[in-house]
Amino acid sequence: MAMTLKLNGTTRDVDAEPGTPLLWVIRDELKLTGTKFGCGVASCGACTVHLDGEPVRSCQTYVEDVEGAEITTIEGLNSDISAAVQQAWTELDVVQCGYCQSGQIMSAVGLLSETAKPTLEEIDLYMDGNACRCATYQRIRAAIQRASQIMEA
User: For 15-35, what is the mean pLDDT?
Assistant: First the structure.
């Protein structure tokens, strides 16, 4: 099925069968590999992308359901919020193996887009469901707090 997607600010023509997860179109057809496959059942967050500015799990989002929506992957992040998150991630050396980090960052940007100064409880609730095999949760939480400070400055 031929369709047009708005991905990272660019219109892209794709050909995918109905029921194909957006994740596989992004990775296999469009060759953007920053979005990761983790579990396939929307439980780990590694495949998180933004759909019209909201974080969604691309492994359980079907390509035919996103035609006309603005899709942003980790490669397309380009805002003051995402710059603050990336700066905080670097400053606090969040990454260990790095596999989950694109999903973590996409979720963190989503949180800070909604709540500029989240509490620890708000961070924990929002980030729940983003699994980190290396258990860098404390660094992720601290980086979200730091990104909030950077944004405030």
Answer: 97
